[in-house]
Amino acid sequence: xxxxxxxxxxxxxxxxxxxxxxxxxxxxxxxxxxxxxxxxxxxxxxxxxxxxxxxxxxxxxxxxxxxxxxxxxxxxxxxxxxxxxxxxxxxxxxxxxxxxxxxxxxxxxxxxxxxxxxxxxxxxxxxxxxxxxxxxxxxxxxxxxxxxxxxxxxxxxxxxxxxxxxxxxxxxxxxxxxxxxxxxxxxxxxxxxxxxxxxxxxxxxxxxxxxxxxxxxxxxxxxxxxxxxxxxxxxxxxxxxxxxxxxxxxxxxxxxxxxxxxxxxxxxxxxxxxxxxxxxxxxxxxxxxxxxxxxxxxxxxxxxxxxxxxxxxxxxxxxxxxxxxxxxxxxxxxxxxxxxxxxxxxxxxxxxxxxxxxxxxxxx
Length: 364
Ligand SMILES: [Zn+2]
Hints:
By secondary structure, this protein is α/β, with parallel strands linked by helices. It is built from 13 helices and 14 strands.
């Protein structure tokens, strides 16, 4: 955009825009392209984000293993490495491995570029303002551990932590769904969760647990016992672990369940239809509450799973009012397995470059 364009879009005066641009330029965050464009008067230079000015470190911590990635300020992945670990090793041991891997990666790929910030995806509910996971989750031993403070001390830069589904919806929107201001992402993997974009921003609710639909109750499915201790939770019917349980092979991973499905195993096909309808009940309720423009389904079980999608579609159209479904888009996620790294990086970039915070970040 040109300086005149920035003045028009922000409504700020010419001196104010010039002053703000000087701050960003001295921080190396913008560059002027050699190309000039017509702007009424003499041709103007185009101002661009200098995405190479800082590195973002992105962590995608899963139950078994952690991906560590480096990106630029547009969340383009530069390099990544997989750390072999398990969350059950506890926060101190796992964070130590994550920090060492990130430092090695920076030293190898971009030793001269300063780290601007860090984004972290956790497979658990996250109390967003505090940067830690809270309550029951697969992250046994992490309840209340100050993950953000630990990483902030190690790297000396701002750290932002969110649960995985919020980061999936963020990545999906940035990369493939920027036309939607109201987007619901449903992740079906071992467990089930959802993330929500409202008015173009992640909606976390009061403390960060919005969208936790995996532990809402679905009736008429036999009230199986859930991992959380309750009975009849959605994920106890339709989550990957529940499908494996129903196949009487509880050790099956979501990927293995999907392999059976693709082979046409009749038991799995029947279970998947059932799971799709249970999921559809919960999603239909969410549609009535939230009126999203689009619902995207992803996760290891949900990705490109037409059977599951059919159940969701059936129930959503059956249960919701016509106004809510009139222009509703239902589709599969387009994210690759790097989706969470991208989401974690987008989280950090969005927070660092937020107009209300960028001054603090740049030490102004
Ligand atoms: Zn539950």
